Amino acid sequence: MIQKIKENIWQFIFTQFGSCAYLIKINKKSIIIDTGSEWNKYELIEDLKKLQIASSQIDILILTHNHPDHTGNINLFQNAKVYGSKKDFSNDFILNINNLNIPEFKIIETPGHSKGGICILYKDVLFSGDTIFHNGGIGRMDLQGGSETEMKESLNKLKEINYKILCPGHV
Ligand SMILES: [Zn+2]
Hints:
Elements: E1 2-6, E2 9-12, E3 21-26, E4 29-33, H1 41-50, E5 60-62, H2 68-71, E6 81-84, E7 95-96, E8 105-109, E9 118-122, E10 125-129, H3 148-159, E11 165-168
Parallel strand pairs: 4-5, 5-6, 6-7, 10-11
Antiparallel strand pairs: 1-2, 2-3, 3-4, 8-9, 9-10
The protein binds zinc ion (ZN).
The site of zinc ion has 4 residues, from loops.
């Protein structure tokens, strides 16, 4: 299911288990945040088709963290540069999020759910991965790399941020 968040932001919600994915268009660049799980592959392809975009046309893929329900379809985006935190992704294929060159995006490190969890602030929209959800929900801290202390610090960090629209990893 596609939900339009803003004139240049779309949210993909899948029927099978997997994270939400987001498409953002900035300056003729097509950016995806998270990919859902591998079970979401065909739905994601179909949704992109409805927006008249092929997965091969995606320029940049950003991963909020390294969990399979968010990273299951990386291989769909053959021409994209893929970015994530080096605290979550150690392989060379994933580029360091600190080197992402999109001035409109502010990257906020938010460990707690995983070591290398990040949120992305774009204008008044916060893409929060599995750090925070709607209605005060927060991510699990009992998985590998999770930490209650770090989550507390990350939540405090997010409280300082002025956003109007929350785009979480799960709805
Ligand atoms: Zn997760």
